[in-house]
Amino acid sequence: MSVYDEVLRRDIYRLRLFGFDYFNTIVDIGAHHGTFSLLARAINPNARIVSFEPSPRTFKVFDRNTAGWRIQKYMVGLGNGSEGYINPTNKSDRAVVNYNQGNQSHIKVKMITFDELMKIAKPQGTSMLKVDCEGGETYIIGNENKLNKFNYIAIEVHYHHGIRKLLGVPDKNFWEEWAKDYAQNFNANVETDLRSRDGMIWIMKNG
């Protein structure tokens, strides 16, 4: 299924559930070609939108697609703060960042921690966080207090066999428990859909 179908037709991040110009800040981790950031701007014309995409090839398309749309763009990804690598032979534009270089042909990309990312994003007012970074969502774990700064969060979690073998990411049972714990610890309304090879977690802050 294409990114455009996920974002525009199915609205998997549920952005259209909110009113026009609802959010003051929107943070997009894993911006890809900019489909979500552009939709967010169209619905929230006055919001500050901050987007992150580590792949140089993908970022080039993203930057071109969003030119003039008042989106703050950073060619970095969510990780552990050390350099990551992308296999250039992977023709998919949904780049998976690995911390094992493999060989000299792999493309080096900049990865920052969630704490560093938050210092850039600086969410203010009514805020939303969208996360879709091909396994990089693992690095939100342990940062729940910072996540709670957002009013609404939509996370795509990846746990299919291929990505678990490559990156060692948690399985869907982990994410199910993580979502339950988050709901209890932060008194949040949390929904999950973890039935397919990738899943979704939606978090709405109460109050």
> Helix segment count?
7
Q: Return the string of H and E elements.
A: HEHEHEEEEEHEHEHHEE
Judging by the overall fold, what is the CATH architecture? 3-Layer(aba) Sandwich
Query: What sort of overall outline do the alpha carbons produce when their principal axes are compared?
Result: globular
- Class derived from helix and strand content: alpha/beta
Number of domains: 1
Structure description:
It is a single chain. The chain is of the alpha/beta class. The chain is 29% helix and 24% strand. The protein is built from 7 helices and 11 strands. A 7-stranded mixed beta sheet has the order 3-2-1-8-9-11-10, with helices on both faces. Strands 4-7 form a two-stranded parallel ribbon. Strands 5-6 form a two-stranded antiparallel sheet. Strand 2, helix 3 and strand 3 form a beta-alpha-beta unit. The protein is globular and about 50 Å long. The mean pLDDT is 92.
In short:
The chain has 207 residues and is α/β, with parallel strands linked by helices.
Layout: helices, strands, pairs:
Blueprint lengths: L2 H7 L15 E5 L5 H9 L4 E5 L3 H10 L5 E4 L2 E2 L5 E3 L20 E3 L1 E2 L1 H8 L5 E5 L12 H4 L4 E7 L2 H7 L4 H15 L1 E6 L4 E8 L2
Which features characterize this protein?
alpha/beta, 11 strands, two-stranded parallel sheet, 207 residues, Rossmann fold, 7-stranded mixed sheet, single chain
